[in-house]
Fold:
Amino acid sequence: MSHMVRTFIAGLIVVLPIVLTIALVVWIGNLVYEFVGPNSIVGRLLSAIGFGITASSAAAYAIGIAIVVACVYVLGLFVETRLQHRVNGIINAVMQRIPLIRNVYDLARRFVALIDRKGGNDLTSMRPVWCFFGGDGGAAVLALLPAPDPIMIGGEPYLAILVPSAPVPVGGCLIYVPTGWIKPAEIGIEALMTTYVSMGVSAPRAVQ
Structure:
């Protein structure tokens, strides 16, 4: 019986990463479908675009997606020209004028800037850090440090860290912690994002 259990566990260890990967992909797919599927608000807007061409709801939805994808592609061609900075400036100026929305937009823009290696602005200054709550030996959290400059709270220096949410790291919470709790994490942004997206399954086996 013990031999059968060991054999089963050995097979489970081999197949478990594949099962977790499929489960994560399916979960993200369901999340995307709920947001842009035919029955969602975005899906109904896409269908409304296509209804001007066909009366079929499925065809209208597909046509709406095709039109939006084509528009995004054309925008990409336009942005790749020398007018890229002007276009970004106009979009940023408009979004910054909308209360509340500008905060969400700024957070999303920071995460996109982390992925876009062509961006050479200050948004790419975010770097991974370890936050040891309570100091050395405390619970460790892998986070992002948006800015290296501390702020004074009650006469003590504090740093703002952004702790992403798993498995969708475009959200999270902003925490101000004492500077002594922070240590650099010798991993890249990609490794940090992969750790949160995989819910720790693909975390580095040894980090500094």
